[in-house]
Amino acid sequence: MDVGIAFDLKADFAGRVAQGGPEDLLEEYDSQPTIDAIAAALAALGHRPRLLGGGRRLLEQVLAAPPDLVFNIAEGFGGRSREAHVPAALEMLCVPYTHSDPLTLAVTLDKAVAKRLAAAAGVPTPRFAVVAEAAQAAALDLALPVIAKPLWEGSSKGIRKSSRITDPKALGETVGRLLADYGEPVLVEEFLPGAEFTVGVLGTGRDARVIGALEVVPRLARTEEFVYSLEVKRNWEVEVEYHVPPRRPPEVVADVERVALDAYRALECRDVGRVDVRLDAQGRASFLEVNPLPGIHPVTGDLCILARGRGMTYEELIGAIVASARARWGL
Fold it and tell me: DSSP secondary structure string, 144-203?
């Protein structure tokens, strides 16, 4: 098949970020080595990859010569519906694509909307509140410690080791900083003290299946205080160990995987996703958030690390995503 790759690079937006803002504003965007790896995997699978990019460039290429399928990892730019831009345009042009549809990509980027929908489906998630003004932080009915994060960002943007908050004054200061830096509401949720996991899922609906769970084990912090922050992710070889499979009792791993799959299905994710889960004080698994456009850098992407740990090659992972999409579209 002729497979176009939809993507956004950090370099695409370097000139559109205001000076003096937080240094992680472009954290979610991809690098050229990731795109090259996807293209090489698609070629090895017998497809004809074509780099489409994102935004206007993608639209121009698709209008001129529609591919058979678009492999979509484009994050979009601006606002909480940015991840829905490309799939919405492709649907309008009747071009098949991989990954989730515009609705799922929009609701999962807004962490509070995703948590409400998951909770309505019976998926456990920590108690939380959405704060639009710093003064509101003092009146929250949440048990400390809490964690504060921007409401509709990914890739740990705005999340630091200091994001775990144990006193009201620090909460107000953190919320105020996040509001100023990111220009969007802040999610404040009760902090769970147990182990942290991320779970890879492939497929759609009833055919969705867990490919593996990865436990994030801190080297430099106590588990009950550990935040999987931007600093940790950038320095992961020093800060953490990744255990695939987790070194936990089978019933704990099963609970983690069940919660992840339930959340994935409740939010109607398609083809692939990565679900973050953490244990509460009683050792029960609880849903944190889902990434339906998970990073797929072949070396450092969490999804790729856990797939490798389960014996799946990079080509097999890319091939499984494409196969799921082809089955949905009847290609």
Answer: SSEEEEETT--TTTT--GGGEE-SHHHHHHHHHHHHHHHSS-EEEEEPP-S-EEEEEEES
